[in-house]
Design a protein that fits this description.
Blueprint (H helix, E strand, L loop, with lengths): L1 E3 L11 E4 L2 E4 L5 H13 L3 E2 L15 H16 L25 H8 L11 H20 L4 E4 L21 H11 L5 E5 L6 H7 L5 E8 L24 E6 L5 H18 L3 E6 L16 H12 L5 E5 L5 H12 L4
Parallel strand pairs: 1-4, 1-5, 5-10, 6-7, 6-9, 7-8, 9-10
Antiparallel strand pairs: 2-3
Helix pairs in contact: 1-9, 2-3, 4-5, 7-8, 8-9
Bound molecules: {5-[(3-aminopropyl)amino]pentyl}boronic acid and zinc ion (ZN).
Length: 340
């Protein structure tokens, strides 16, 4: 198994998020990667650098105007004489216009963001770009015959839509990997999202397509972030109808409850008979996670890895969430061990 990592992730740092009405330091922090790298080193695995890609590759799953905004957002902020982190304060919700992109910086920030929890700092674009390069490299290696790869992506990606940032996500790393595998000639790709939070961005990107299956197990959006997507009745549209499967589970779900949903979810993947699998690997389903409410213990990540690896599919694992920083490395390594 090949593991891909870029130190450029650390350029995305220093942000605060609006969490339950309070401005707090981001739970999504560079130290998460340090702990994952330490666990990888303890396991005796090597990491390698991502390849470089032209920015045009991001238009495979993102809108050009959104990418232009992301690339230039912080320079525009600096041009206003500001430093520190950028957060939006107003969004085009119900009854407001979203058929035209506003010109002002704060207006565009609100237009492209869907929460006030995903600060942009000076290094955000470079870090998000490097994370996407890790996912693309991991996909290219699998397309070239590697059985499994792991992209240590930070910032994460599964909340980022075609033209939308949020949930600490800017570029959708898993979607880019899935599309890359399609572009390499694999006819059907399955995405399995096990992060605690519904992968709304990935769902949106592949919503009307039958060539990428999206299957997600997550906290019930009635009470859990991202709140407005992730229900079981969301099944895709047009050609994509029936190729989207959501498994919202209640707060407090433990391995027994999780494993039942996982079995059904994996059944959908098997029925689809994909050429490759992309896993959005969030380990915030851990019982000690500070912002999530499932009750999986450390040993359950070994079980999770074994169940996914048993599919025996060429697999790209993409890092998503996980905010119990001290335990994140061991939990990730426990999943990877089934593939290594
Ligand atoms: C990203 B990933 C609620 C704040 C929620 C966003 C959580 C993003 C999780 N008051 N903050 O899916 O792990
Ligand atoms: Zn999450």
């Amino acid at each position: 198994m090949k593991l891909i990592h870029s130190p450029l992730h650390a350029l995305h740092d220093g942000g605060m998020e609006l969490h339950r009405g309070e401005l707090v330091p981001c739970y999504e922090m560079p130290a998460r990667v340090d702990h994952i790298l330490a666990a990888i080193a303890r396991a005796g695995w090597a990491v390698e650098a991502p390849r470089e890609y032209d920015d045009a590759v991001f238009t495979s799953v993102h809108d050009a105007d959104y990418l232009a905004f992301l690339r230039g957002a912080y320079d525009a902020w600096r041009a206003e004489g500001r430093d520190g982190f950028m957060l939006p304060g107003a969004f085009p919700a119900r009854g407001l216009r979203r058929d035209r992109v506003p010109t002002g910086l704060h207006a565009r920030l609100g237009y492209y963001a869907f929460d006030a929890g995903s600060p942009i700092v000076a290094g955000t674009w470079q870090a998000a770009r490097a994370a996407a390069h890790c996912a693309l490299t991991a996909a290219d290696l699998v397309a070239a015959g590697e059985r499994s790869t792991y992209a240590l992506c930070r910032p994460p990606g599964h909340h980022a839509g075609r033209g939308m940032l949020g949930g600490y996500c800017f570029l959708n790393n898993a979607a880019l990997a899935a599309q890359r595998l399609r572009d390499a000639g694999m006819a059907r790709i399955a995405v399995l999202d096990v992060d605690y939070h519904h992968g709304n961005g990935t769902q949106e990107i592949f919503w009307d397509r039958d060539d990428v299956l999206f299957v997600s197990i997550h906290g019930d959006p009635n009470t859990e972030y991202p709140f407005f997507l992730g229900h079981a009745d969301e099944r895709g549209a047009g050609a994509g109808e029936g190729y989207n499967h959501n498994f919202p589970l209640p707060r407090g779900t433990d391995w027994a409850g999780y494993a039942a949903a996982l079995e059904t979810a994996l059944g959908h993947v098997v029925d689809y008979a994909p050429q490759a699998l992309v896993v959005s690997l969030g380990v915030d389903i851990f019982e000690g996670d500070p912002i999530s409410q499932f009750r999986l213990g450390a040993a359950d990540f070994t079980r999770l890895g074994a169940h996914i690896a048993a599919l025996e599919l060429p697999t790209v694992l993409v890092q998503e969430g996980g905010y119990a920083v001290a335990e994140i490395g061991d939990n990730v390594a426990s999943v990877l061990a089934a593939f290594a």
